[in-house]
Amino acid sequence: MTSRQTALGVRVLGATATAGLAFLLAGGTASAAPVTNAPSDSDATMAAQVAAAPETTTRLAKFFVNLDKQSTGMLAQGTPDAQALRAKAPRVTGPARPVYTLTPDFVRSVDAPVATFVYMAVPARSASGQDASILLSRKGTAWSIHQITSGTDAFGPAATGTVFTEPQNNAWYRLDGDRVLPLNQPAAWSVGQDGTSVAKYHDLVHSRYADKLPGSDYQRQHKLGGYSTGGPTPNDSSTVISPLLFALTGTGIAGAGVVVMVARRRRV
User: Is the pTM of this model over 0.85?
Assistant: First the structure.
C-alpha cells in the first residue's frame, strides 16, 4: 500500500465489483462489464454519512492515538487519554468510493468480469497528519464500519476510475479501458510500472490461481494452510487487508485455500 503503512500480515480473500461500462479485450472482442455488484450513488451517500458520524470520529481518534503508541513500541491497550483523543481531531478528507477485488470467474475466463464490489472506502486524516481509510460494508440497505486501516491507497492521484485489489499479493490496480495499471509497489511487481492489458493480466492470475479453484487437486488434497473461511473479526488495524479478510471468504478462491501471509500484522 502507499501512504504511511506499516508491515502487513494478511490472510486474504477476494470479492469485489463496480461500474457498468464495457471495454475491449485484446483481439477486438467485447467483454462483459469489467466489474459486478457496483453500488449506487445513494449507497455512496449513505456510506459517507456513516463515515462522518460523531461515533466514527471518536473511533478514528482512538485509532490514530493507538498508531502513535505502536510507533513507540507501546501496546495499544485500554482507553486512550481524553486529551490525546481531542488532539487528533480527525476529519474525513474525501468522498466514499467503491473498492473491488479480483473474481475467481476472471481467473477462469478472460471474458468474465475482472472484479466485484467488496466495500466502500472513505479517506480520513488526523490533525497530526496521519492518514487512514474507513472501510464500510453493507448489510441489506444499511452501511456500517467494517474496519479502519492506515493508508489511503484507494485515493491516490492515480486511483481514479475503477480501483480493485488482488488480495493474495496485496496489489492495488486501476482498470482503464483495456489496461490494468498499478497503484502500489506489489502491483508494479506484478504487471510492471506501465501496467498490462486485461488479457495479459488474465494470463497472469490464471497461472497463479487457476489450479487452486474449487474442484482442483489443490482443494481436493485439503491444502488450506490453516485458512479459515469463517470470516474475519472487524478489528481496526494499522495495516490494510486488501481487500479485507471478508472479501475472499465468499469466493471460490478463498475456499480453495489461496492464502497469503505477508509479514507481521499489527492491530490497534
Answer: no
258, 224, 262, 265: which is closest to 103 by C-alpha?
258
Per-residue model confidence as pLDDT tens digits over 143-178: 999 999 888 766 765 567 789 999 888 899 999 989
Domain count, the chain: 1
Work out whether the CA dihedral 134, 137, 140, 141 comes out positive or negative.
positive
* 40 dihedral zone (left: phi>0; alpha: psi -120 to 50; beta): beta
Q: Grid coordinates representing 177?
A: 479501458
Q: What tens digit of pLDDT does each residue of 39-70 get?
A: 999 999 999 999 999 999 999 999 999 888 87
DSSP-assigned beta bridge partners for residue 107: none
Is 251 part of a structural domain of the chain? yes
What are 45's strand-pairing partners? none
Q: Is residue 23 part of a domain?
A: no
Torsion of CA 9, 12, 16, 22, to 10 degrees: 90
CB 204 within 8 A of CB 106: no
Cell 494499522, located at residue: 238
Residue at 27 is within a domain: no
13 inside domain: no
- Of 53, 55, 20, nearest to 35 by C-alpha is 20
The bridge status of strand 179-182 relative to strand 196-197 is antiparallel
Q: What range does the domain containing 137 cover?
A: 35-255
Distance of CA 211 to the CA centre of its chain: 23
